[in-house]
Design a protein that fits this description.
The chain is mostly helical. It contains 17 helices and no strands. The longest helix is centred in the C-terminal third of the chain and has 31 residues.
Length: 327
């Protein structure tokens, strides 16, 4: 069991930790703030362009027939999570940026790669997982900023979404995503052939945003404002949030009498939040000095969800007969 848990700590997680350490010790200052900020913006545009190019229209159309499952995943991602996020962010004594980060985490779309991978390991409906995860990310490009504007207008430390932020979202997130998807017939095969290059761009963009965000937060006194109790609170809240959603999605599957393969899709696609989408969105939606603290709950939740889902997926794969009782 210990080996299985440790196997989840892939190199990218270690790179994330290393990036936070580097930003804490050597944050960008002076002219380097603008340089790294410009590279981070370029990375975000390229990331969403490639996400659009990877989105398969055929998978969406084929999977759309299983509408009950997709509605359930949508409800878990964009209804259950936000309601829980609102409740958690209102806990008395929680630092303002941390509360904002918890709520922001709850408004994000689901992951794509890991949701599909865990569904496959557990013996779930992979085609439906591709559709649900892709739809979640497609909708999230528009819906997440809208939910931030709606639910964070009076939220502590956020100030809502300004007109400038809306323009940036359209130009830096939505437009590249749409252009990439429209160009899929032209570049789709190239993207498929060069998955390693796409992964480098994907992860490199996230690391750039994390470095600039944490660097700006460190300069503003991040580690003086965040106590050990705050860190423990974030870990505890993320763990409780994940446990509630995992339990709720499995319970929803039972109530809806979904087949075991579809129940697995709801479990994994409905309980996860996307680091790949969340970090760039935070960089666009919030002030640089706030981003580091705001994405900290997301980074911790991301690791927790990988560990928990890896253990659950292998358990479901080993005990398929027991899991079939949900059908």
């Amino acid at each position: 069991m210990l080996r299985r848990v440790l196997s989840v700590f892939e190199p990218f997680i270690l790179m994330l930790v290393g990036t936070v350490v580097l930003a804490s010790l050597l944050p960008p200052v002076g002219v380097f703030v603008d340089i790294f900020g410009a590279f981070a913006d370029i990375g975000i545009v390229l990331l969403f362009f490639l996400h659009g190019a990877k989105l398969s229209r055929e998978a969406i159309l084929d999977g759309a027939r299983n509408w009950r499952l997709h509605v359930a995943v949508f409800a878990a991602t964009y209804v259950l999570f936000p309601v829980l996020g609102l409740g958690f962010s209102a806990i008395p004594g929680l630092a303002a940026p941390v509360a904002t980060g918890i709520l922001f985490l709850a408004l994000l779309p689901s992951t794509v790669q890991s949701s599909i991978a865990f569904t496959a390991i557990a013996g779930g409906n992979v085609a439906a997982a591709v559709c649900s995860a892709s739809l979640s990310n497609l909708i999230g490009v528009v819906l997440t900023p809208a939910l931030v504007a709606l639910l964070m207008h009076n939220a502590v430390g956020s100030g809502g979404v300004s007109l400038d932020a809306v323009q940036t979202i359209l130009l830096q997130l939505l437009l590249p995503f749409v252009v990439g998807h429209l160009l899929r017939p032209v570049i789709g095969k190239w993207v498929q052939r060069n998955k390693k290059l796409v992964t480098v761009v994907d992860r490199g963009s996230i690391l750039l945003v994390v470095y600039t965000a944490f660097g700006a937060a460190v300069v503003e006194g991040l580690w003086h404002r965040l106590t050990g109790l705050d860190l423990a609170m974030i870990v505890a809240l993320c763990s409780i949030l994940l446990a509630i959603v995992l339990t709720a999605t499995w319970g929803m599957a039972r109530m809806m009498r979904l087949s075991r393969p579809d129940a697995i899709v709801l479990l994994f696609c409905g309980s996860k939040k996307s680091l790949a989408s969340g970090v760039p969105m935070a960089g666009v939606l919030f002030a640089p000095s706030q981003v580091g603290l705001i994405i900290l709950p997301l980074m911790l939740f991301h690791q927790l969800q990988l560990i928990a889902c890896a253990v659950i997926a292998r358990r479901l794969a080993e005990t398929g007969g027991e899991a079939s009782s949900s059908e």
